[in-house]
Design goal:
With 106 residues, the chain is mainly alpha-helical. Helix content is 44%, strand content 8%. Strands 1-2 form a two-stranded antiparallel sheet. The longest helix is centred in the N-terminal third of the chain and has 22 residues.
Length: 106
């Protein structure tokens, strides 16, 4: 597929990218947060935000439509997942995937 050839992105490719990104965020939340915390994975849904007129650059953020449970540290969990995602994205950006062992030694 020629995704970058015409400076365009087919909508089906955008959908796949978005779904893979959502899956990665959910997996980080599910497997990297403490197992004894009761998680509502709906708190880790993401949305494209900050849509501006004439801009084709998407920004992603956690949905404001969270399903908090009493006693659940949603903000802390989101901050942890965001930090972990940023580390993974940094590793992907450099291509030094051996560094993943630092995050996931097991």
């Amino acid at each position: 597929m020629d995704c970058g050839r015409y400076n365009s992105l087919p909508i089906d490719v955008l959908i796949k990218i978005s779904q893979h990104l959502q899956d990665l965020i959910a997996n980080i939340a599910q497997y990297d947060l403490p197992a004894d915390d009761l998680l509502n994975l709906d708190n880790f849904k993401i949305e494209i935000v900050d849509l501006k007129k004439g801009s084709a650059v998407p920004a992603f953020a956690f949905s404001q439509r969270s399903g908090n449970r009493i006693g659940q540290d949603c903000a802390g969990h989101r901050a942890f997942v965001n930090e972990r995602f940023e580390k993974i994205a940094e590793i992907a950006n450099t291509g030094d995937y051996k560094r993943l062992v630092e995050l996931y030694p097991e």
